[in-house]
Write a structure and sequence with these properties.
By secondary structure, the chain is α/β, with parallel strands linked by helices. Strands 3-10-8-2-7-5-6 form a seven-stranded mixed sheet, sandwiched between helices. A three-stranded mixed sheet has the order 9-4-11, with no helix packed on it. Strand 5, helix 17 and strand 6 form a beta-alpha-beta unit. The longest helix is centred in the first third of the chain and has 28 residues. The N and C termini lie far apart (70 Å).
């Protein structure tokens, strides 16, 4: 008993550190969790015990070798940042909607990082015979590197009012260097860029200064502390602890949310890779019955995939600030018989890849199909007797094989503008796709997919300077730039239509967008507002098409004010092709009288929101 009392008196400061750290970690987990079961709380109470002991012991070692409390500041900042920032951000974002939030790994990781860095630096200092600037720099750099993730979490939250998630990680992995550059150009001014650079430089210098250890002064402090130094037992325990934590910390890091987000994104992409294998092994299972009615000569059907085209900003849909779609507006107003405008189309998601993997395949929000086990619009067109083409101004260099790319490569003929030698070393515009139409043989039946860049960020780079109408040439201005990109896309659509009608016996042209946008607000990967789901859907049907397929034509006309989500595009394409198939559900077919969906039954945001929740469909949130 006396020994215990003596121990407590001798080490009361470190015992207090243990209890403070332990209660802090348990408190962070408890107060930033939602729906945590009692067994999970008890599990984490046990999990944090060795971490708190390690923090107290490492603090003892730090002081015993003669280092001052103030020098622990950068280590404490790193540990506390990891233990709190993600948990607090995710709780703020999701506490009122999530049923379960349990971010324990960050709390423990922050503690283990503190232990390893403090003990390793203490041991290096103990065996040093003089000051070492290299170690000061090294530990300053390590602290900076470790702080990057928490700092980026804060920046992400301040920009998007969301915590970093798998959806955000997918967006990162599918981006290429050009898109990253354009993102920063659009979302960061020169002043903010310089400010951030200065802040980073100041932080690096500050961390270096905080990590500077004046060996002589510390030795004096050590002598004042009676100069005992490390005993052999404490030295061995320190080495064992340092090695143990070094081996275990990577494991706990793999349990952090940022790693989980990227693991989920990578798994999503890995799963997509099985797509080609499935098609090769199951192609014979796709049965397509073609219509017995035929066009008078070889014909063409074109599907144009817009990018970030929000119908709230299209004059063809009533946008009045500027005439952003003059050709489409004129065609719909003067030739509504052939140009059918659908008033209530939505995207299934607010990001290209997840939206289009469903639009191009059987997979949708209402079934349990996986992308890699689904047939595609290209498969349907081939089975219907069409030669298939895929022309794209999207970038595919330096990106993982996304679902969109995998579908595209199954077409008979593919062409990406960025692969054209004549377009190297300059900004690529959607007009650069137009020459590709000459690759199409007018003496064959053709199904052409044209994937444009449309109004993708950075919109200032989506139209040639000579097409500037609403902004100043070369001047970054979000809303006018977005309007100009819309107007240029409208011109590109006109050129495609004119060429195909004159040269390829165009029978139908479908135009829709992957998702919408709002240039007044920054785009987000989570908690996406409805304006980012509202998209255009306009279908051209020739006179011959309408005469040959009156049932399809009438069904489409009847649905002009019906609601639609673009994950049902696969069935719509099958309907326009006038085929039946064992992999084509007529109740999902917008071009069929059997179409079953309504505003009350349709979903968006990958099934998380109902369209009936969009109570202000025409509202633009500035």
């Amino acid at each position: 008993m006396l020994n215990l009392v003596k121990f407590i008196k001798s080490y009361r400061l470190y015992i207090a550190i243990f209890f403070i750290v332990y209660l802090f970690m348990v408190g962070v987990f408890y107060f930033t969790s939602v729906g945590a079961e009692s067994y999970r709380i008890l599990l984490n109470m046990r999990r944090y015990l060795p971490v708190a002991l390690g923090v107290a012991f490492s603090s003892y070692v730090w002081r015993t070798v003669g280092l001052g409390w103030r020098k622990l500041l950068p280590y404490s900042i790193v540990g506390i940042s990891w233990s709190t920032i993600h948990n607090v951000m995710s709780y703020i974002v999701d506490f009122d909607t999530a049923t379960n939030i349990n971010n324990y790994a960050e709390v423990a990781f922050g503690g283990y990082v503190f232990i390893f860095l403090v003990v390793s630096r203490s041991l290096l200092f103990y065996f040093q015979k003089r000051s070492n600037v290299f170690l000061d720099l090294l530990y300053g750099f390590v602290h900076f590197a470790l702080l990057l993730v928490p700092m980026m979490e804060i920046v992400y939250y301040l920009n998007y009012k969301a915590s970093f998630s798998t959806a955000a990680a997918i967006a990162v992995l599918q981006s290429n260097p050009g898109e990253v550059k354009e993102y920063f150009l659009q979302n960061m001014s020169l002043l903010s860029g310089v400010s951030i650079s200065v802040c980073i430089l100041v932080l690096v210098i500050l961390l270096f200064k905080l990590n500077q250890i004046n060996h002589v002064l510390c030795l004096k402090e050590k002598q004042l502390k009676n100069g005992k130094g490390l005993t052999k037992k404490i030295l061995v325990a320190s080495v064992v602890l340092c090695l143990s934590v070094a081996l275990y910390t990577p494991k706990i890091f793999m349990g952090t949310s940022v790693v989980h987000a990227f693991d989920g994104a990578k798994e999503y992409l890995r799963s997509a890779q099985k797509f080609t294998e499935y098609y090769r092994n199951n192609e014979q299972n796709l049965n397509v019955i073609k219509s017995e009615r035929h066009f008078s000569k070889p014909s063409t059907i074109i599907l144009i995939v817009g990018e970030s085209a929000g119908r709230n900003f299209m004059s063809v849909y009533g946008y009045s600030a500027n005439d952003t779609t003059p050709w489409l507006r004129t065609q719909v107003e003067s030739d509504s018989k052939n140009f059918l405008l659908f008033n209530h189309a939505y995207s299934s998601y607010g990001s290209t890849m997840q939206a289009l993997e469903q639009a191009f395949t059987e997979k949708n929000q209402y079934n349990n199909k996986e992308f890699n086990q689904s047939f595609t619009i290209i498969d349907l067109a081939k089975k219907a007797g069409y030669k298939t083409y895929w022309f794209s101004n999207q970038s595919v260099k330096n990106t993982a094989d996304t679902p969109v790319q995998l579908v595209a490569r199954t077409a008979d003929v593919t062409h990406w503008v960025e692969d054209d030698p004549s377009t190297q070393n300059r900004i690529l515009y959607d007009g650069d796709l137009l020459p590709a139409l000459k690759m199409v043989n007018p003496n064959e039946n053709n199904f052409i997919v044209i994937h444009v860049m449309g109004s993708h960020e950075l919109t200032l780079h989506r139209f040639p300077p000579e097409f500037t109408k609403f902004s100043q040439p070369g001047v970054f201005d979000l809303v006018p730039n977005y309007e100009d990109s819309m107007a240029y896309s409208d011109w590109v659509l006109q050129q495609i239509y004119d060429y195909a009608k004159s040269n390829l016996n165009l029978q139908s042209m479908i135009f829709f967008s992957d998702h919408g946008a709002n240039p007044y607000r920054k785009r987000v990967a989570d908690n996406i507002p409805f304006i980012n789901f509202r998209i255009p859907l306009i279908i051209y049907l020739s006179d011959e098409y309408q005469s040959l397929y009156p049932e399809t034509t009438e069904a489409l006309r009847a649905h002009k004010n019906q609601y639609f989500t673009n994950d049902l595009l696969y069935e719509l394409v099958g309907g326009v092709l006038n085929i039946t198939s064992n992999h084509l559900e007529q109740e999902n077919n917008f071009a069929s009288s059997e179409y079953k969906y309504t505003r009350d039954t349709l979903k968006t945001d990958l099934g998380r929101k109902g369209l009936n929740e969009d109570i202000s469909e025409d509202k633009i949130e500035k």
